[in-house]
Write the structure tokens for this entry.
Amino acid sequence: MGWIRNLMNRLFTKKLEVGKEIENGVINGNNKLESTLEKYEVPETPMYLPKLETLEYAVEQWLYKLIDIKNKNQSITAYNALTSLGTFDDIEISGNNPQNEMRLLDEIEYNPNLLLHTQRSKNIYDENGDKLPMYYHVKKGNPYGCMWRIYLNCKRENVAVLADELMKELDKDEEYYIKFDSDVAMSKKSRMEKIVIYIPNDDDQLNSKINAVQRVEQKYPQLFEGKKATNPFLQLIGENIMYAYEPTSSYYKDLEGENLDVGVSSYNDLLSYALEDSYVNAIRNVVSKDQNLLQKIGYANNMDFLAYTNLVLEDIIDNSEKKQDLIIGISNNLEKCQENNPVLGIRGITEEERTERDI
């Protein structure tokens, strides 16, 4: 009976060794054993992610902001999504800005060389029934005929101090025009351009104002804390100074080449019309290729900006291929919009960047 026990022990030991070899994926010590799962598994398609600092990246951020606004039950417009890009999450963090703002406004009021105008909300009132102040416009001299705007973003708690330091530097010039957000406005909504400097059609004035901002940035870098929070569509000097041309007409030339008097009053207005036009055209193309999306909108593929955003945008963004189609479509349309409206000057639309996108 001893030989039977020895035979069984040898067989059991061999079985354990083979089991270990299979478990380790090795046969005869040389070849890898490919499991059935590995052999037939379909690789997951990687999610489409545009390169940073490209037009596609800017479009992606704008689309995400549209979804964020929708989910927060806020007013869904191209303009609101645009002006919310690159904002700080600081609506409830005022620091000493309310007190600093009051001191600054008092100084401006008593300065005979400065003119202060308070721009008030059209439909937001305080407890006394007065319309809330939204922006403070400060002018020295006669700075009219604006050709450019410089946009600066900073935390709410730094706005009044930064505006004060900027005015001290700008005061070296004979004239300037600056606007900054009121603290109460920032407690309601955070915008990406809390301070705007208007510049006349004069290269010397443009260089002078840029140099003034850079001097303040070098002297008080803490006022620009988090300074990379910028709007990805706007042209950029360094890491913080955004700028754009000022539209000289109330017209917008759409993708079809039709001139529309839409009452453009600012660069953000013009860019918002271009974004909405590009978006609606591109999303219709994406929807037309998908029966599920068509069914979701009731096969009426001629809807407006708001309807597409409410009904199908999130479905498209959740699908990598459709998301890419939408972003590329919008980007290509924006190139056409810029051809029709050269004043747009969108960051990411140059011959070199266009070539990289086509490769």
Remarks:
- Confidence is low (pLDDT under 50) at residues 1-34, 351-359.
- Residues 55-84+255-358 form one domain.
